[in-house]
Amino acid sequence: MLAIDNNTSLIITMDQPKIERLLRLMQYLIGNTSYTLDELGKKLDLSRRTMFRYIDTFKSVGFSVPRISEGVYKLVIDDSSKLDISKIVYFTEEEAYVVNNLIDSLDNTNAMKQGLKQKLAAVYDSTSIGNYVGNKENSASIGSLAKAIKNKWTVILKDYSSSHSGMTKDYTVEPFKFNMNYVDFWAYDINDGKNKRFKIARIGHVDCLESSHWKNESFHHYDHMDVFGIHGNDSFHAKIKLSFIAKNLLIEEHPMAADGLSENGSDSWIWEGDVYGIEGIGRFVLGLPKEVVVLEGDKLLSYLQDSARYIIEKVVNGSGLTR
Question: Does 238 reside within a domain?
Fold first, then answer.
């Protein structure tokens, strides 16, 4: 639960399973499908009494949670808000910090964690919660970029450290999409006329050109990203069988891969899906040669065979890795 101490600051006293259930309850109450409290109780393994406590918690921090029919409650937008989702709840700076810490307390392998942060940042842009999303050293850049994306402003990435040139330079870009985890983002480089990915940690600071709006939106394009973090447009299908150890490591290292997992008997699992590059899934399989079997994917098999030959030639036979 959320408690208030003598200094009126909010204190988080929930353990992780309770936090996860609270956040899942929030998702159900916001979703398009309406469930009764009894149905939600079965889905979340919660008693009606506990759900009412959680609903009271939502109300206490500013959410509107009306009963819309017998046993059915929803987080809704008031008609007078003109569908402005940011008016569902207002967070002060202190409350934003607490809510973000609540989400931060989820394990990093929880796929819900970054999704919640992205949704909150999308609502609040560079204010309140938006200021706390991601690495705090990069929060100012994230906030400025989020505001620029919403308002379709051009920005200057000042003192950006390029890994290709080994130098810092300024880039004038039209930022249009954050990637998962707010590690990088997509922007249209006006000088080069290309869509590029930029690392947030490499930015000195962001100057928003509020009087300069996008002029190249029709050219904005980003590559898709697979569950192993590889971007691309041309995909290929892969299917692998994993041991218990490999399955756990897959979820820990690549949480989004959980959707492609299925049980295969009592002691093995199958992961199946499309990937946009060989490097991500290839590195994962190479690191667990005794725990993973490739069932489908000729491109993946060729990559593994080439890598195995290279390892034998350069490492096992003692010639050493090339520099």
Answer: yes
Which CATH number is 296's domain given?
A: 3.30.70
Please indicate, yes or no, if residue 129 is contained in any of the structural domains: no
Residue recorded with tokens 């409650």: 73
pTM recorded for the entire structure: 0.48
**Helix/strand number for the chain, H first, E second:** 9, 15
Range name among 82-86, 147-151, 213-217, 219-223 with the lowest pLDDT average: 82-86
Cα–Cα distance measured from residue 81 to residue 66, given in angstroms and rounded to the nearest whole number: 16
Q: Specify the length of the chain in residues.
A: 323
Quickly list DSSP for 258-276.
GGGEEE-SSSEEEEEEEES
The reported pLDDT for the residue numbered 11 is 34
Q: In one letter, which amino acid is 78?
A: D
Show the CA angle centred on residue 108, arms to residues 27 and 227, nearest 5°. 80
Domain of 282? 231-316
